[in-house]
Amino acid sequence: MNNAALIRPGWTPATIALMIIGFMLFWPLGLAMLAYIVWGNRFGGFKHEMNNAAENVCGAWRRNRRSQRFGRGPFGTGNVAFDEWREKELERLDEERRKLEEMRAEFETYAQELRRAKDREEFDRFMADRNARKPSGSVPDVNKGNGE
Questions:
Q1: Which whole-number Å values give the CA distances from 120 to 16, 37, 123, 125, in the listed order?
Q2: At a CB cut-off of 8 Å and minimum separation 6, what does 23 contact?
Q3: Is 147 left (phi over 0), alpha (psi -120 to 50) or beta?
Q4: What is the pLDDT of residue 37?
Q5: Mean per-residue pLDDT for 109-129?
């Protein structure tokens, strides 16, 4: 099990323990952990959007630096054929990395949906068991036991 699955937004033993430790060490840490537990699922898309935006900005800069470093700038190897081959291979690897990132994001979405479906199934099972135990026609008397 990886750390992302261990410390995910939600009321898990690990997140509760981290929240308590955070409050004991320095109260803003505990408060930050509480916010992560309650609203952490909303930040997943934000994280991916920020990563993509940073990749778009920094990726162009990195590609420009790489092209100057390998073959097109003053730091080339001097062999034009090798520099062209190397540039094509680096572009191919960048494309593969992008594809892997997309697949990882798709899998994270899939795993989150599986967790949501499992939680829904457990809740539905609980409600069915609860409703089966409770007599269907009885309405609780709120005045009973008040001493009146």
A1: 22, 19, 5, 9
A2: 29, 30, 31
A3: left
A4: 82
A5: 94
Q: Both tokens of residue 114?
A: 């599986």
Which pair of structure tokens corresponds to residue 12?
Answer: 């898990």
Tokens of residue 146, six digits:
């008040």
For residues 61-77, average pLDDT = 59
Inter-residue contact 70 to 86 (CB < 8 Å):
yes
Output the furthest CA–CA distance in the chain (Å, rounded).
99
- End-to-end alpha-carbon separation of the chain, Å? 57
Indicate yes or no: pTM above 0.85: no
Helix (H) or strand (E) holding 127: helix 80-133
Closest CA to 48 of 129, 112, 115: 112
pLDDT at position 36: 82
Name the burial class of residue 71, with classes exposed (0-12), middle (13-18) and buried (19+) by CB atoms within 10 angstroms of its CB: buried
Per-residue tokens: 49: 């959007």
